[in-house]
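Bench notes, afternoon.
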Amino acid sequence: MLPVTASRLATQHFLDGMPAGQLDALARTASEVVLPAGQRLFAEGGYAAKFWLIESGCVVLDVSVPGNGRTVVGRVGLGGLVGWSWLLPPYHWAFGAVCATEVRAFEFDATAVRECCAADPSLSDELTRRLLPVVAGRLQDTRSRLLVRQEGTET
């Protein structure tokens, strides 16, 4: 695989328009990975040590619903971000995630990214600004899917 560089990260939708110096810092915390279909990236409540930007494939997001088991609440594909719980203490996953297909992604070391953010508050601000719409969208998607599921079970 090719080394992760700022120019490669600049092609990612989530990082589009980010300053070169910030992309350089992120590139130093990243590696490229290929993950098999069926691999669980993380489980709800686990420690958030990594996050991913998807280059190809699809990741399914799920949540445990008492009495119903795991419920799919979203899908993330090309150009999407998987994982945002690494940014805020206590760094525990709010959802679970599993590869629906083989996935090629940039994988980031969350501790290293947090260290970069501590050294450069403008990077922290930039990532937070980019993450907030992702978080809001995921919460809205989850709400919508759970409401549809609930309506489908009412008699």
